[in-house]
Amino acid sequence: MRVGQAVLKYETDIIRELSALIRIRSVKEPAQPGMPYGPGVARALDYMLQLGEALGFNICNADGYAGHIEWSGGEEIAAVLVHLDTVPEGDGWSSNPFIAEIRGDLLIGRGASDNKGPAVAAVYALAALRDAIGRPERTIRIIFGTDEESGMTDMDYYFSKHPLPLYGFTPDASYPIIHAEKGFLVNTLYEKRDAACRTPILSISGGEAPNMVPDYCETILDVGLLSAEAITILEEHAKALDRAELDWRDGCLKLKIRGKSGHGSYPPSGINAIVLTLQLLNKAGLLHPQQHKLLYDLHKSIGSEAFGQSLGIACEDPKHGKLTVNLAAIRADREQASAVLNIRYPVTKNGEQLLKQLEARFAKIGIEFWTEQHMEPLYISEDQPLIKKLGRAYELVMKEPVKLLSIGGGTYARKLQNRGVAFGAGFPGRNHGPGAHQPDECISISDLMLHAQICTQALYELQKKGDE
After folding, report:
1. Taking the model in full, what pTM does it have?
2. What is the mean pLDDT of the chain?
3. Where are the beta strands (DSSP E) in 149-234?
4. Which domains does the chain have, with CATH numbers?
């Protein structure tokens, strides 16, 4: 039975509600009472729960950490996991990132593709399925997360209060089926510095989130400690770089460098402003190894590399790809310096062994190293019932054989304890414009509606019993 087309009548509603959701700036902020990730994220969650209630579904708010809408059936649960939080907007937008703009077939705004578009589509997929069939054989939930971009602690809390679904998927990657996700590490590097050290570098600040390629980095230099040669090099290379700006003020020189944001799972997708900054400071002779141990090592051991070669951790799997390293953030002054690395490693590699190797390497040069977050790789074999059900849904709508893929990104599928995968919402090979975490993030409306059909069909397949 093909029920996916039932969602097409909701296209106007989907565009309207997605536009409204984009207007809510749901970037993580300091916690407030009842709002563990800040007021913007809380507003987005409330909005979607109210939408579900207006459509006649049962709703649940898990203390502001997450929530769900539900169409009740049997005791077993099938679920779609989406997230309402976004990365910060960053620079380089051609329009307001929080006013959804439609240009032809594209809807532009922060979160359009990651993950607000698929979140809205999932709600209307559930409504379309209800239109098409009677009572579901399994209860179906659309689970709304609010901390996917910053650690997924929302799902830890949610599943401490609610049961895991029997089957689940998250439309937060691409089609056909993502059955493997790389291991995910967030590591902090730290150096305690001698405040009495006379160095021209007063401060450096860049980067906002581990899973973003940083698009801005700012350095403040003490002009009185800069040589004439260093000033000349900074001026000449800043002009040639065309991404740098020098601002002279109050005895200080502010160096501002703009890169291009991209997804941290694949650093070449952006232009790293921190890397550009360290390269320029090194050309000007300002990264002395004894004065700036951490900064110098980052420049030498990472630089513009994305795959861990100079760190000595490069590895790859023929099916699941290369290890990647994103220099995501940096903060430094005359007393201390720190940096954040986001490392994604292939599913066949040992994460703990990798961490020991890195810790030993940085210890040798006197830099502290610790792990903020470690998510083990995800792998679900092709013979699992979930894969077969989702594959059937995909093939019914797309009229082509399903394929199993591996990605470097991390999704909520990791929280489902081998009961879920990433499934959609993007279609590989369709370059409509900037995607997740980039300026002018957009989603193709026609692709969103095609995804909505697959999502509806997938919910139908997952709620059915007896074909496992």
Report:
1. 0.79
2. 94
3. 167-170, 173-174, 177-181, 183-192, 201-206, 212-213, 216-222
4. 4-181+378-463 (3.40.630.10), 184-375 (3.30.70.360)
